[in-house]
Amino acid sequence: MGGDNGISVTVPAAVRFAHRIADVHFLLVGDETKIKKSLNHSKPRDPNQFEIIPCNEVITGEDAVESALRHKKGSTMHVAIKLVSEQKADACISAGNTGALMAISRLILKTLDGIKRPAIASAIPNISGGGTYVLDLGANVDCTPQHLQQFAIMGTALVQAIEEIDNPTLGLLNIGHETHKGNDVVRKTYSLLQESGLNFIGNVEGDDIFKSKCNVVVCDGFVGNVMLKTSEGLAKMISQKLKKRFLHSFFTKLIAFIAKPVLSKFKEEVDNRRYNGAVFLGLKGVVVKSHGSADSLAFKHAIYKAYSAIKFDILNKISVKVGELQSTEVSEQISNNTEHA
Amino acid sequence: MGGDNGISVTVPAAVRFAHRIADVHFLLVGDETKIKKSLNHSKPRDPNQFEIIPCNEVITGEDAVESALRHKKGSTMHVAIKLVSEQKADACISAGNTGALMAISRLILKTLDGIKRPAIASAIPNISGGGTYVLDLGANVDCTPQHLQQFAIMGTALVQAIEEIDNPTLGLLNIGHETHKGNDVVRKTYSLLQESGLNFIGNVEGDDIFKSKCNVVVCDGFVGNVMLKTSEGLAKMISQKLKKRFLHSFFTKLIAFIAKPVLSKFKEEVDNRRYNGAVFLGLKGVVVKSHGSADSLAFKHAIYKAYSAIKFDILNKISVKVGELQSTEVSEQISNNTEHA
């Protein structure tokens, strides 16, 4: 039901996805009448791939997280995430209120054993035509080096799952490439990542995200959120200015008509719809958040992210890697203590 | 001598500036022979506006800040900043190593009385065709609410000086507009700014910088630096992709030729050269850092920033406002202590 366009986007996206992937089964949580109508309209190939879970309570974008948690316990978000916790669904995908979705996910699903904090990860289009995955994008405003190390593990597993890259490269977002740069948390994280066994390439700067320097970039949620919104704001401003220039007069509109094939190709290339879908990592279940303004093509890509995460068994892979690192830390502590004794 | 192009940019820029502004006098610090040659080539209207201060030791972009401070005490940067501290110059403008320039400025000039930390401020082009001034852009990786409050005062004074806006609006960079958003430092800063007497409009997000929501945006140097470099990286990627599209084939090149008037206007509009010049605020002297890749037009704008700061008597205005706020704080503390007694 969520996002700017609700069912008119989410249902057709699910139908389009099911067209291509036969082994998927959708539980559509929301207003039964509206979903039925949209389903009929979208003409699914196999109607058995869809089941409606009727629910009429909806969390809006304006609802504060606290009140959504307390006063809307029967909301579509609660119901959908409960389906995951009861193993009736493998993943939950929503275009709704990000804060509420994360809070309800944490409440119902809990974090994976050993994971201190869940994080939000998404891909940013880069110059190579691919995407650079960045996390955390806003779930955690204060992070310790240990949190950031866990984000690195989770981000690596995510890229392995979705991009099918064996050993993704990892960068630490900083204000310079040199080892000594940044604040205390970032410097300590640098050391932890060097010892983590991950494919760590060192510090990266804001512009490196677009240069395809590495597959995963780790940062705290404050910095990540500012970075993401800055990128969205700048891209929007540039496209508005370009559009305005071409719509300036009859003459420029004529030029726009002639240049259309080039401009369309350009638009396609900087189109970020195929990167839609921020993955909530570190929970006992897969939750994917679509951009609120997503159309059905973009929402289909968010579904694809959830599907890949499940197929790759991402939760298990994260647990194993976190477990490995923790046992190394514990054994190091024991040996340190023995030395001191 | 600094930046990617050294004297071939800085000297012609100074000559162009002196063409328009009669009451400026330049002390050109660097290689005497080269400067003389460049001066002759640039044909100044009034040669008396220029004086050469011979100096052959140069700090490069590769020099570590520590070694620049210790082993290059006779560098052009040292000499130029000393001219400011000895009141032989009103401002120093450089396109060289940012870290070294800040460190040498702090060492020689010291901070203004009452100012805890100097900050780097620059304008980011926004949708209105103007610029949003953001600070700190990288001088301080860890900030207290008091530091951020002082940045707000200094940024406000800078916009008053350069943009000639009486009462500039001020935003606090955060990850949401709501009062409770962000980390502890940002929330405490929010309260301080509310009581500061500045024209504080509340929290702003990364995309608001481009929406012309306020004149000044305050953040810590880590976040500001990531924001700045992200913007530079994204803008570069988009322009590369647009260029590549138009250079794709003979046909697209033909379209580019036809679309040239529109594309040139667009390029002019997103041209950030007129925003060149990051101002180091909070020091006992005006220091302006030009982008290393600046051409002479861009460098001329950096000179203009220094000129405006001097004309507006920015150092004095910052001192007065900081003094006012401190005396308020002291009197509040006294009245609090009296209440508790």
TrEMBL record, chains A, B:
InterPro entries: FA_synthesis, Phospholipid_synth_PlsX-like
Keywords: Acyltransferase, Cytoplasm, Lipid biosynthesis, Lipid metabolism, Phospholipid biosynthesis, Phospholipid metabolism, Transferase
GO molecular function list: phosphate:acyl-[acyl carrier protein] acyltransferase activity
Record pathway: Lipid metabolism; phospholipid metabolism
Entry's Gene Ontology BP terms: fatty acid biosynthetic process; phospholipid biosynthetic process
UniProt cross-references to SUPFAM superfamilies, sorted A to Z: Isocitrate/Isopropylmalate dehydrogenase-like
Catalytic reaction list: a fatty acyl-[ACP] + phosphate = an acyl phosphate + holo-[ACP]
EC annotation from Swiss-Prot or TrEMBL: 2.3.1.274
Locations listed in the record: Cytoplasm
Record-level GO cellular component terms: cytoplasm
Subunit field text: Homodimer. Probably interacts with PlsY.
Protein family per UniProt: Belongs to the PlsX family.
Role according to the record: Catalyzes the reversible formation of acyl-phosphate (acyl-PO(4)) from acyl-[acyl-carrier-protein] (acyl-ACP). This enzyme utilizes acyl-ACP as fatty acyl donor, but not acyl-CoA.
Protein name in UniProt: Phosphate acyltransferase
Natural source organism: Taylorella asinigenitalis (strain MCE3)
